[in-house]
Write a structure and sequence with these properties.
With 173 residues, the protein is α+β, with helices and mostly antiparallel strands. The chain has one domain (8-167). The chain contains three helices and five strands. Helix 1 (26-39) packs antiparallel against helix 3 (143-167).
């Protein structure tokens, strides 16, 4: 997934955040969020998804966890959509609580999740960054396609964001 030096990256959404503190089933939350990216075409680990960071630091009975994901969705040989999700989990620990008379094991944590969306054009370096042909190609021949993909990646990142909020039982605005 390294970029060609002639490729251009445009940030569509930067540092969209969810902050949450409470009790959840962390392994299930992790799995469902990753599964959603895969269903949307961004999460196939064999082709277009990488977990670039997974760090756990023990702090007494709890741990702090940092995770970074990057998923790509190629539209064609020229355009790629990129979603980045980073998790910062503070004080992740196992807890047990009673629900309708049965004890349930869950996790307690303070979580911050950041979402970024980017559009990459000229990903294979078909044109030099400053060439006239690139400007003509992007501004006249495929301008509508680029604009449509900016809208699509915007919708995709907010779909992931909203679904994460739903999983955490937060209200969408």
């Amino acid at each position: 997934m390294p970029l060609n030096k002639e490729a251009e990256e445009t940030t569509i959404v930067s540092s969209l955040k969810v902050r949450w503190k409470g009790i959840l089933d962390w392994p299930e939350f992790y799995k469902k969020t990753k599964s959603q990216l895969k269903e949307m075409g961004y999460g196939d680990e064999r082709k277009n998804f990488v977990e670039s960071k997974y760090v756990e630091r023990l702090k007494g009975e709890s741990k702090n966890v940092e995770i970074a994901w990057k998923g790509e969705k190629s539209v064609d040989d020229y355009i790629t959509r990129v979603i980045e999700v980073t998790f910062l989990i503070i004080g992740l620990k196992d807890v047990e609580f009673e629900n309708n008379g049965t004890k349930t094991k869950m996790n307690s944590a303070d979580i911050e999740i950041k979402f970024n969306a980017k559009l990459i054009t000229n990903k294979k370096g078909a044109y030099k960054k400053t060439s006239l042909m690139k400007k003509v190609y992007e501004n006249f021949l495929i301008a509508d396609l680029i604009e449509r993909n900016k809208i699509d990646i915007y919708k995709d990142i907010y779909k992931v964001h909203d679904e994460v909020k739903n999983r955490l039982n937060l209200t969408n605005y």
